Model the fold of this input.
Amino acid sequence: MNELYHVEGTLNRGFVGQITYMVCLEKPCDKLDIHFTFDKRKRKYAPREATPERIAETIEVVRRDYGEEITEERAREIILNDMKTEIHTLATLNDEFIGCIHKQLADRHMLYDGEFASEGCIPQQKIDGVLKVTVLVFNVIKDNTRYQLTVSAE
Amino acid sequence: MFKRYELHNHTDQSDAKITCRELIGIMEKDRVDCFAVTDHNTTSGQPIIRKILSEEDHKVKCLYGMEYTTYYGHIVCPVLEQYVPWDSINRRNPELLFEACKKAGAVTGVAHPFSYGDPFARGCRFEMEIKDFTNVDYIEIINNPEPLHEVNVPGILWWEDLVLKGEKISACAGMDLHTFKDKMAKKFATYIEGTDDGDPAEELRTALAAQRTWVSSGMLVTWEIKKDSVRFALRNMKKPGAARSNTYTLTLKNRDGVREFDLSGGSLTLPLDELSDIEIPKLYAGEPIPENLRCVAPVIRK
Done:
């Protein structure tokens, strides 16, 4: 496949929202690959980073939002195991929805041709026009979370 | 006749561990009349299930939908055949998305409103501020995998509060099926009235418009107003694996409180003038505590 577009970026902690990239396909294609990777999906912190301040902050959030009292050990468990950077990728072709990947794969491909599409995606008989790829950012745990997006076609 | 609907199910097109074909099999095996495919943020399972059901002989019907999985909560649409973008989601004005979905012919529900969100799972708790419920068809008052007291009871109470304030919103349940491990025995489903050859999406729309939905684990309590009285009756849906009981308690909740009645005999008639303008009937197996809840019936409006 030929690479049509490549971008790399970083996300700051706490960002919620989406970033959309538009690619004008110069000619009709038979196959399309939208490849997305990002790092630091899980294990936000190394055990040593579950500091007393972060534990206290987590206890306070749970108390405020859920009315529950949790132990320091549970807060530590949440910090190390539950919290994660969560990003979805969504694609449209000429403003028609053609798929979204919800599975939290740190390395994922959205593959398309006339008969086949990867999970979450809809096969496309005609791959032509304007492709929009949207990176939907639900949660970013740490500053400078890197991602890469590559669009290739054949 | 009553039909059992399972309105909230996932496949491997989003994050479930079951394929579209396996989902059909699970539903047929449990004698479901109609199920919805509601994958997270994708409609890609719809054509796969359509193809299977059109080419093979299956009794179960399907509704083609999606679960909007946003930063501020999930909106489950058991019917959404035309994808509606959600990139302009506004936490303080979610009415725009509900309205756009309804204009596209969707059925809209608030999913697991009190689920745990951040820092456990961002986006799962419904944090949108709805001021106008016009385009909200239902609230998923019971999401079966969620904990009863922490998540589902607050959901029931929120729905009751809205109903008693005069909102016309139905109540539904969801399996939120993701794996083969999610067993359906003793879990809550949504029941509506329909006919043998009725269109499943239209029958659901009709039921929701009239707020004629039952959330039940197998036993329904029905009511009928006849001149000066209202008659309540038990009705066994013979849901596979449903728990049985010898004693049943009917509760009626209105703005003044909750009253209890023994319904172990199978039926009960009350004078109509003993009912207030809005009553929410619920059925319990024995003592009326959350663990014993068996059915939430359509609201009685005089």
